[in-house]
Amino acid sequence: MQAFQRAQQLHAQGRLPEAEQAYSEIATPGEHREAVLLALAELYLQSRRLDQAIETLSALTEEAPDELSYYVRLVNLLEQGGQPDAAIEQYRRFLARHPDSPDAHFNLALVCKNAMRYGEAESEYMESIRLGISGVEEVYSNLGVLYSAMREPDKAQEIYEKAVAIDARYVPALFNLAGLHEERGDKGRALELYRQILSFQPQHWESLSRIAYATRVTAENDGIVDELVRGIDSASNDPEGREGLYFALGKVYDDLGRYDEAFDAFRSGNELAKSHNVRWDRAATERGISGVMSLFDESWLNHATTSFDASPIFVCGMFRSGSTLIEQILAGHPSIKTAGEFDYLPWLIKRWFSPYPDRVRDISTDELSMVAGEYVSKLQELFPGATHVTDKRPDNFLHLGLIAAMFPSSRIVYTKRNRLDNCLSVYFTRLRGLGYATDLGDIAHYHEQHERLMAHWQAILGDRLFVADYDELVSDPESILRALLGFLGLPWDDRCLQFQDAAALVKTASVWQVRESLYARSSGRWKNYERHVADISDFH
Predict the structure, then answer these.
(1) Total structural domains within the chain
(2) C-alpha–C-alpha distance, residues 79 and 87, integer Å
(3) For residue range 158-175, what is the model confidence (pLDDT) as tens digits?
(4) N or C: which end of the chain has fewer CB atoms below 10 A?
(5) Contact at 8 Å (CB) between 289 and 453?
(6) Which residues, 6+ apart, have CB-to-CB distance to 307 below 8 Å?
(7) Considering the domain boundaries, does residue 63 fall inside one?
(8) Is residue 44 part of a domain?
(9) Quick one: 472 exposed, middle or buried, by C-beta within 10 A (0-12, 13-18, 19+)?
(10) CATH number of 321's domain
(11) pTM value surpassing 0.85
(12) d(CA 448, CA 328)
């Protein structure tokens, strides 16, 4: 025991190499092995040695196979390390010993959902409920999120309502239910639920922000301005909540034509966002784009193209370039199903093609066909029987060479927009995790690199790529839509022009804009902010 205490002292003093040596010397079978392994795992985590931490936690689950908390920590690391199958197997190991553990079934459901194994996730959630898990309203709320991801909104609504029936003040379920009503276009019910949340949790700033986005603010209903300003003052110790409120306030000021105040609010929100975003590296971005262009050339495409005959429709471009609008218009066509911002392709790329893109330099068509098959199987799972499905994740533009090789019959719709309008719209939108999105100069630089890459794709993909210009679309929708449907090999259908009534779920920041008839007020919007965009007007 003295040796263990000495190792702990070294650890506490930050003398990690000596502590590691001391732990390793006593991590032998015996009375204190469990405590030693746990301490050694902590040391590896502290020094960011993921592989050794995983190895040590694996040994810990062998030493104490009935302690669920050790499996939880191991699974979290395996997920971080991109090993979803191994993570799932660890919980199955525990459940082989404890099949009636509701918490283990719930945890396994979460991992299965993250791995996009939706059917298994559903089964595990249901089993945890059957076994009488405590706090069942949380399970129902998570199950509702799963059904939403599975594009089953009726089931999602039913299950959220079950959670609320158990606890009428369970905010996660209420908030998810309100968000689902937004996605379905039921503004009245969504606003009612957000107000309900605020009635007993006045500092639920995300609900207040959602109300601001869902409301077209005029001089007659501008009381929301005072609510947002008071919220910003009250959220002094909540930077994330304050950030969201600033973005909402900017939107409201923009509605009211108070453009300088709007820009100041957006700038404040972006400054807060910078604190938790990785600093953007323009030089690294240029190198990355150059690397993609160098690898994915005509020679590579000729070598790598598969004979896979599926024909998904990819809608991509800069964020805020009109991709949601295009997809919503296509949702009005009876032959098209819409997957929205479908995360499955980036997930597959991370799983099978890391490090990307070097991993695919000499890849075989058989391997590409296998991954393409996984993608199509997931689409068929979510949209059984559909022959035309759109995937409108905007940043798929980074992978168009890979997409063209995997799906030679696919159709690619590239959405573009006036550069200044597009850059401002990105800056005015709270895009979590996009480091470039918080600085107008970085956005302009990223837009420039985006256009450089798109010129490359246009050169090698030719008529497999359709350019949908946002400004042309809003000024002359029918001619653009006729050309687009012709490109997709589909007949004209008048319902595309009534897209605002389409039943498709909308899961992006454009949720309310695309529920309106086509309007041109966003074209040339940059002129309202001309003095604020002077630095990027001639950006090269």
Answers:
(1) 1
(2) 6
(3) 999 999 999 999 999 999
(4) C
(5) yes
(6) 365, 369, 408
(7) no
(8) no
(9) middle
(10) 3.40.50.300
(11) yes
(12) 27
